[in-house]
Amino acid sequence: FWVSNLPSMVPAVSMRALTKRFDDVVAVDALDLDIADGEFFALLGPSGCGKTTTLRMIAGLEIPSAGSLKIHGDEVGTLPPNKRPVNTVFQNYALFPHMSIADNVGFGLRMQKTPKADVARRVGEAIELVRLTGMEHRRPNQLSGGQQQRVALARALVNRPKVLLLDEPLAALDLKLRQGMQFELKQLQREVGITFVFVTHDQEEALSMADRIGVMGDGELLQVGTPEEIYDQPVNRFVADFIGRSNFLPGTVEDSSTVCLTNGTRVVVDHAGTTGEAIALSLRPERVQLVDRGAVPDGHASLDGTIGAVTFLGSGVVYHVTLDWMTIEVRAENRPSVARREVGDDVSLWWRDDAVAVV
Ligand code: ATP
User: Fold this and answer.
1) Whose alpha carbon is nearest atom 20 of ligand 1?
2) 50 lines ligand 1 (CB under 6 A)
3) pLDDT band per the 50, 70, 90 thresholds, residue 3
4) How close is the Cα of 48 to the center of ligand 1, in Å?
5) Whose CA is nearest to atom 9 of ligand 1?
6) Residues 51-89: pLDDT tens digits?
7) Closest ligand 1 atom, CA of 28?
8) Whether 330 contacts 321, CB under 8 Å
9) Is 48 in the pocket of ligand 1 (CB under 6 A)?
10) How far is CA 175 from CA 42, 119, 165, 228, 350, in A?
11) Furthest-apart CA pair in the chain: how many Å?
12) Structural domains of the chain sorted by starting position, each given as residue range(s) with its CATH number in brackets
C-alpha cells in the first residue's frame, strides 16, 4: 500500500535562484537546492533565517518573488497548495477538536469524495502506521501531545503525498518524548519511502534524523551535506558555531598548510587559506585529548593549561582548561579508564590532524 517505488532520478524538489521578498526584507535569497526522491532533508537555521518561508513556498502557501521551483520535475511556481503532490504537518497539529481521530485522518479523503470503503481502509492503514490503532474513536483532547502529533502525521500521509513537509513538528513535545519521536519519525520515513523536508532550529534533531542538512543563515543556504560533513567539516564559523559546540582558536595563515595561533603555536592543516589571513581553528570539545602536562605524543601541536572548572554531565565530563591566552572546553567520556581531573591540575591538550577545521 505504501508504494515504496524505487526512488526516481528526478529530484523530488528542485530550486533554482528561488527568492522571496516581503517588501524590503529578502526572506529567501536565490536558493539553489535539489532534494532527492526518498530523502529525509532538514532545513536548519536560527529564527528568522528563512527556513519556514522556503517550506511554505514548496507547500504553495507563499508565491516566490523570483526563481524556479519544481516538484518531481514539474514547475509549480503558482499552483495552489491542493494541486501539489505535497502535504504539510504544522507545529500546532491543527486537528479538529470536535472530530474523532478517524474523522480527522479521513477528512481530506472525504473532501475529495473518495468512496467510503476506501476512506475506511486507508484511514485504518494510516492509523496503524503511526501506531494509534484502538484510539480511532477518541477526540484529540483525549490524547497526549505525542499521540496528537501522530494523528497529524497520519492525516498528512493518508493521501499519499510525494513530498511531506514538516514545520518543527516536534517543537511542542517535551524533551524525552521529542527524542522518542525523532527515532519514530525516521523509521516511519524509511517505511513509507516518501521524501520528507523538515524545518527545525534544533541542531540535534537535524543531526539525528536527516540524510542531509541544509544550514541557512540570513536567507541564504550556507552549507548542504550529510550530518557528518556538516559537523566535521563546517564551511565557516557560523555553521561550526550553530551546530554543536566548538572552540575557536584564533590565528593567522602562515602558508598553505600552516596556521600560527595567537600564542605562536604552529598547527599543520589541510587547507589553511591565503597567507596573512586572520582565521580560526574550530576544534570540537570531544576531539581534544587531555593528558598530563607534557605527555603529548610526538608530532602533534599541543597547548599547556590548567583545569579551571569541571562539570559532570553523567555521560561525560566537561573541563574548562585555562590557557594564558584563552579558555578551551574539553569533553571527556565518563568511563573508569579515563582519568578524572581536578581544578588546578596542570595538563596538556593535543588533537589529531583531522580534528580541526579552518573557519
Ligand atoms: P522561525 O524559526 O522563527 O520561524 P524562520 O527561519 O522560519 O524563523 P521565516 O519565518 O522564513 O524564518 O522568516 C524569514 C524572514 O522573513 C524574517 O525576517 C521574517 O520576519 C520575514 N517574514 C516572514 N514572513 C513574513 C511576512 N508574511 N511578511 C513580512 N515579513 C515576513
Assistant:
1) 48
2) yes
3) low
4) 5
5) 50
6) 999 999 999 999 999 999 999 999 998 899 989 999 999
7) 14
8) yes
9) yes
10) 19, 35, 22, 23, 34
11) 77
12) 13-237 (3.40.50.300), 245-358 (2.40.50.140)
